[in-house]
Design brief:
five-stranded antiparallel β-sheet, E3_ubiquitin-ligase_CHFR, zinc, SH3 type barrels, 17% helix, alpha+beta
Length: 530
């Protein structure tokens, strides 16, 4: 397995008071004007305070911190039982075994509940760096006001407390995405639950919980951030990390999202409450409720909803049907073909399903051709085009018309190493002339069929996580439980596939190859036996 057993090496000293818990030390450092300095307690990597890192508030008096690499490698803290829901199950088994042992030895000390790691990151100060190693150790810019804590996108690592799309399958449920990545197709294909952080109410007395229920409650709250001196309303623009292209847009709750309320509304996970989405059709400007399916473009930006990012573009089902009926989208580019938007991008069909935890977003029909579809310009033979144009004019007894610009779209053949190819019009309202449907590609690789939704090739379920080494840009990252699409066998030892909108190589033993969605569902059921 790719995970490693925790070690018991000595933690590294930090520059803040070791007698305070993590959240309190942040405040103390701010009051003293001291910039935090945090090192990884496993690999000793220094200065991870400006990177996404994980903290245990119990181990080493709250000084136990992990860099992202050590966390994803499963190294944890000194009393860590794993990721997400699997940790609770492992602890319950260990607690039951400890209880039986205690009964035999007449001991009453139960097993300590598992520790929960919180994710954190400081934004660097705006001042010019100085001091040792180019860092500023004293600053008037309060570090506590630059602390990000809670949920971070598994793909781009953006802070996502305002809208976090949680997956309950990938990485045992300790996995999720920011709204921008979900809208642009850079997420997994599992149902996703949208959550937002709501500040806790003043504490009230509560009845004592049993040991097992206490641990379950603790893991329901594993996404809840620790207290922070900063208080920001959900509608307020938040300061942007350096990698965010649109500060006020990327970091706030989407305008189409509201808290899911009502007498039967789910309680959420700790201080994270479920959202409900009512989007706007970018054609008729009507509302699309969560129970309605919509055609979603991962690339277009809405011209109807203000201050949006690419991927915030939806068309209601009636409008898309009218676009095809009115000829604004040719039938081969419509729902029975490539399913393209007015600008030519391939679209998915998405919707929401009611679950006990809230309304989960599902990709009902993935983009035709998947991520691995190859788009190339198609050089037109001028003489052939003129001859065909004259023939079409004579047959239809109509005036001269310009032939549409074409592209060549190709994908992997299902029964061999070759690629299938099909001509496609650049203008979605135009259709490929029948004589050019195959055109100059009159060979065994040409076809008048469409590739499968979600892409060609097999699918696979990740037995273990695979996190490539830094610099391995041609390899594919995925966690345990991920559904990898468009899988191809490269040489027996390595496969090629797609996940989170990316493609790349990965070791074949890390996945179980299945052939269809039904097999994926069956594999998920037995995944706990691995």
């Amino acid at each position: 397995m790719p995970t490693a057993n925790p070690t018991t090496q000595s933690p590294v000293e930090t520059s803040v008071d070791r007698g305070l818990p993590f959240s309190a030390r942040a405040t103390a450092a701010a009051q003293n004007g001291t910039e935090p300095s945090i090192s990884c307690s496993r690999c000793n990597k220094s200065h991870i305070e400006y990177e996404l890192h994980y903290n245990c508030a119990t181990c080493d008096d709250g000084n136990w911190n992990l860099c992202l690499s050590c966390y994803r490698a499963g190294k944890g803290c000194l009393h860590w039982f794993g990721f997400g829901y699997a940790a609770s199950a492992k602890w319950e088994k260990a607690a039951a075994a400890a209880a039986r042992a205690n009964e035999k030895k007449q001991q009453q000390a139960p097993l300590e509940p598992p520790h929960v790691l919180t994710s954190n990151r400081y934004n660097p100060p705006k001042q010019t760096p100085g001091g040792a190693e180019g860092r500023r150790t004293l600053t008037t810019d309060d570090p506590a006001l630059r602390l990000e804590s809670g949920n971070f996108c598994a793909r781009c690592l953006a802070w996502a407390n305002e809208c976090f799309w949680r997956c309950d399958v990938c990485n045992e449920g300790a996995w999720g995405f920011c709204n921008a990545c979900v809208n642009q197709g850079y997420s997994c294909t599992h149902p996703l639950l949208p959550l937002t952080y709501v500040a806790p109410a003043p504490p009230s007395p509560s009845p004592p919980q049993s040991s097992a229920s206490s641990v379950h409650h603790q893991y329901q709250n594993h996404l809840t951030p620790p207290g922070s001196p900063r208080s920001v309303s959900p509608s307020s623009p938040l300061p942007s990390p350096s990698h965010s292209p649109a500060p006020s847009t990327r970091r706030r709750r989407p305008l189409s999202a509201t808290l899911l309320t009502g007498p039967n509304a789910p309680v959420g996970s700790g201080n994270f409450k479920p959202l409900t989405f009512t989007t706007t059709c970018d054609v008729c400007r009507g509302s699309i409720g969560p129970t309605q399916h919509r055609y979603h473009c991962f690339e277009c930006t809405s011209r109807v909803v203000p201050d949006t990012l690419p991927g915030d573009y939806d068309i209601c089902t009636p409008c898309y049907g009218r676009l095809v009926a009115e000829g604004r989208i040719a039938p081969e580019n419509g729902d029975g073909g490539w399913r393209r938007c007015l600008r030519g991008h391939r679209m998915a069909v998405v919707g929401f399903e009611e679950t006990r935890d809230g309304q989960r977003r599902r990709v009902l029909r993935d983009v035709v051709g998947g991520v691995g579809l190859r788009v190339e310009p198609y050089p037109t033979n001028t003489q052939q085009q003129q001859q065909q144009q004259q023939q079409d004019e004579d047959d239809a007894n109509r005036g001269p018309q310009q032939q549409p610009a074409l592209q060549k779209w190709s994908w992997e053949a299902p029964d061999g190493p070759s690629r299938l190819e099909r001509l496609v019009t650049v203008d979605v309202a135009a259709a490929v002339p029948p004589s050019q449907l195959v055109g100059e590609m009159a060979m065994r690789t040409a076809t008048d069929q469409f590739p499968p939704e979600g892409g060609a090739g097999a699918r696979a379920l990740a037995r273990w996580s695979w996190y490539p080494q830094p610099g391995a840009s041609d390899e594919l990252l995925f966690p345990r439980g991920a559904e990898v699409h468009e899988v191809e066998d490269v040489n027996g030892d390595w496969f090629y596939g797609s996940y989170m909108g990316a493609v790349g190589l990965f070791p074949s033993p890390y996945v179980k190859v299945v052939r269809n969605a039904a097999s994926i569902a069956a594999a998920v059921i037995v995944a706990e036996e691995w």
